[in-house]
Amino acid sequence: METVTLSSRRWWSLGALALSVLVIGLDGTILNVALPTLAVELNAGTDDLQWIVDSYLIVLAALMLPAGLLGDRIGRKRLLLIGLTIFLGASVAAAFAGGTGALIAARTAMGVGAAIIMPVSMAILPSIFGPAERGRAIAVWTAGTALGLPLGPVLGGYLLEHYWWGSVFLINVPVVALALGAAAVLLPESRDPDAKGLDPLGTVLAVTGLGALIFGVIQSPTDGWTAPTVYVPVIAGAIALAAFVAIQLRARRPMVELSLFADRIFLWGTVGAVFVSLALVGLLFLVPQYLQVVLGYGTLATGVRLIPLIAGLMVGGLTADRLVARFGFRAVVTAGLLVLATGFGLGALTGAEDGYGQAVRWLVVIGLGVGLTLPPIMDAVLGTVPERSAGAGSGLLQALRQVGGAFGVAVLGSLLSWAYADRLDVAQLPAQAAKVAEESVAGAATVAQRLGDGELLSSAQTAFVHGMSVVMLACAIGAVLVAILTARFLPGRARTEAAASKNEDHELSGVA
Fold first, then answer.
1. Are residues 221 and 97 in the same domain?
2. Domain range for residue 444?
């Protein structure tokens, strides 16, 4: 397979891929600010709103693995164009949906498109960039996804203030259309001529297992881990995935090369990537609530104030490859995780009386830690997968990251709820009002406003900051533990570095 070299065309191609994943990050957060409006405009109940959000997330997690495999087989560029077209059409359908059923169906289709775009766009990178440049390319690709996260609330808040609710979906159209046109013109086609077919039973087990597991985890913060709606799908999903693994281990030509986990870089790099994804998604669950309910910012202002996080991520990501070249893969990843732990540690010291200036410090440091850690890990993990099977490898990595993110919201959300409820003072409230206040800090703020109870609002804000500190302390401890594991088990240099060094030596000898 030819790799494009010494051509500015490949950087324009990278721009097309970054645009492709930008809308996924954007769509991951823009809907959150629109839920109250959808509840009124579409007469949507709580269950309807939950399915509008969850239908997208479940399909996204469940289909990434088979999408990556299919890209290897039929052509990654071709499948990416199909995924972008599905996402484009589904966004238009969502914008003009006449009811909750139609909107849920459109969101499901958007999840299908996103599940194709994520692993396939990443799998295209090795066909464009050699080992020496792939780290920076992955950093830009990662930044494309991350940039959409704070843009979601910013654009969503602005659009809802000036236009109808469907505009939050219609905003995807120009971005996806531009990405679609650029990808069609700029990207080379790549595939694995010996790609394995999609085993029907294995595909069904993987999709249903991941889907059921994610559904149960998503339900856990609202229903509790002991509810049948949580433990039944979680157990069923775990059984299906265990059956999938058993079949793959016995198959002569497995869909997924589980032997990849015997590689130290793949195994411990994946552990690091999943942890960083878990911590980052958990942070993005916490911080908007802190900025809005505790510090009093509106939706638009909250989105703007998340920019320091993305700025730190971009700086870390764009400098990581140079640091890796100088100090080695293991040293930079371990240092990045320790920077991440420092950022969460600073966040854990936040008090209820602190302002946004304090938050900026730990947002930047956390972003820097993510940027120093995630792109090098993803580059190294992708480097362990044969280029012909890049779709399968990236699909597996992205599916695991999505599962990690879902567990991050569920587990860290449960920890937040426990610490928050433990500190909240509702002794003087009626039973129903106390129940609403204990469910969330936003609920407590609503009750306080209705009752004119300033003491309740102050108690809720203090309790939430306490809960946030507990969660951040847990993330800091987790980052230190993962840093110790990576320092112990990761090799000093990834194979991508060795290949880049070999290529560089070859070029120098040719010049000589």
1. no
2. 276-498
Q: Are residues 303 and 336 in the same domain?
A: yes
Contact call for residues 191 and 123 (beta carbons, < 8 A): no
pLDDT(96) > 80:
yes
Gap between the Cα atoms of 347 and 362, Å rounded: 6
* Other residues' Cβ atoms within 10 Å of the Cβ of residue 249: 10
State the pLDDT at residue 390: 67
What are 12-29's pLDDT values in tens digits?
Answer: 888 888 888 888 878 877
CA dist list (Å): 17 to 13, 119, 155, 168: 6, 11, 21, 22
Long-range contacts of 156-160 (CB under 8 A, 24+ apart): 156/29, 156/30, 156/31, 156/32, 156/33, 156/34, 156/299, 156/303, 157/33, 157/298, 157/299, 157/300, 157/302, 157/303, 158/300, 160/33, 160/34, 160/37, 160/299
Number of domains in the chain: 3
Res. 56 pLDDT band, cuts 50 70 90: confident
Token pair for residue 308?
């320091």
**Residue 510 is assigned to a structural domain of this protein:** no
The one-letter code for the residue type at 133 is E
Which has the closest alpha carbon to 254: 389, 423, 94?
A: 389
Q: What's the angle, vertex CA 117, arms to CA 30 and CA 139, rounded to 5? A: 80
DSSP 163: S
Distant-in-sequence, close-in-space partners of 186: CB < 8 Å, separation ≥ 6? 9, 12, 13, 16
pLDDT, position 47: 67
Neighbour tally for 429: CB within 10 Å:
20
Domain membership flag for residue 505: no
Separation CA 379–CA 355 (nearest Å): 37
The pLDDT tens digits for 80-92 are: 999 999 999 999 9
Give the rounded distance of the alpha carbon of 19 from its chain centre.
16
Res. 474 pLDDT band, cuts 50 70 90: very high
User: In angstroms, rounded to a whole number, what is the distance separating the alpha carbons of residues 365 and 369?
Assistant: 6
Q: Which stretches of 31-99 are DSSP H helices?
A: 35-41, 46-74, 76-95
pLDDT at 483: 94
d(CA 224, CA 439): 12
- Answer whether 503's CB lies under 8 Å from 130's CB: yes
Judge whether residue 195 has pLDDT over 70. no
**Which tokens in the block code for residue 87?**
């996402």
Average pLDDT over residues 397-408: 78
| Amino acid residing at 303 | G
Which amino acid is it at 486? T
| Together in a domain, 363 and 237 | no
- Do residues 345 and 472 touch, judged by C-beta distance below 8 A? yes
pLDDT of residue 384: 78
Mean pLDDT across 204-213: 85
